[in-house]
Amino acid sequence: MSLIPKRGTVYVVDDDEAVRDSVQWLLEGQDFRVRCFESAEAFLARYDPREVACMIVDIRMNGMSGLELQDRLTERGSALPIAIITGHGDIPLAVDTMKKGALDFIQKPFKEEQLITLVERMLEQARTNFSEQQQTASRDALLAKLTGRESQVLERIVAGRLNKQIADDLGISIKTVEAHRANIMEKLGTNTVADLLKIALKQAPAPRV
What is the pLDDT of residues 156-176, one digit of tens each? Predict the structure, then answer.
């Protein structure tokens, strides 16, 4: 049994058992964790979006196609990196998948080195996506601590409005704005406006004036 840590999870979705077995054998030999599915439907029933992983899927399968599976994952807001397995006649379809967000496509028969390089690239993207999702979740948890009024004040701080302008916008006193501002800084664990913006910039909606 290998003592080397697994390098990441690769989902293989293909209705051809020989292809699944071949890809699994190759990738497991490179110490990747591989999970195979005989159909898109079977994959969706067991897919865990919390896992850092990537997917290799055949573009043409019985039942749901690889392109349709990609659409379903997009509808769910999934950031799972996807590569499409294609035949020689499927290049136009493969291009469509890339326009919709697939990372790459690979033609049958594919070379081992080509597949391994592609998987490594997809898993690196998966780790980046996971890190960004974790940061977003942490930001959301911090922002959820704010009251409705504090959120309104924060929106205007992000928009660059001064305390007096914020007071006028919301019909409150400057001292009240200052108090809300202090509470916001405390709840978000920040000491400067710059740190505050790092947390809030991508989350706060446009101010209501």
Answer: 998 889 999 999 999 999 999
SS3 letters for the chain?
A: CCCCCCCCEEEEECCCHHHHHHHHHHHHHCCCEEEEECCHHHHHHHCCCCCCEEEEEECCCCCCCHHHHHHHHHHCCCCCCEEEEECHHHHHHHHHHHHCCCCEEEECCCCHHHHHHHHHHHHHHHHHHHHHHHHHHHHHHHHCCCCHHHHHHHHHHHCCCCHHHHHHHHCCCHHHHHHHHHHHHHHHCCCCHHHHHHHHCCCCCCCCC
Half-sphere exposure of 117 (CA within 13 A, CB side): 8
Q: Are strands 33-37 and 53-58 parallel, antiparallel or unpaired?
A: unpaired
The answer to whether 10 touches 119, Cβ cutoff 8 Å, is yes
Taking CA atoms, 132 is separated from 13, 58, 123, in Å, by 26, 28, 14
CA–CA distance, 130 with 179 (Å, rounded to integer): 36
pTM over 0.90: no
Please report the pLDDT score of residue 1 as a whole number: 38
Virtual torsion, Cα 55, 59, 62, 64, nearest 10 deg = 70
Tokens standing for 205? 């909606």
Task: Give tens-digit pLDDT for 1-34.
Answer: 333 346 789 999 999 999 999 999 999 999 999 9
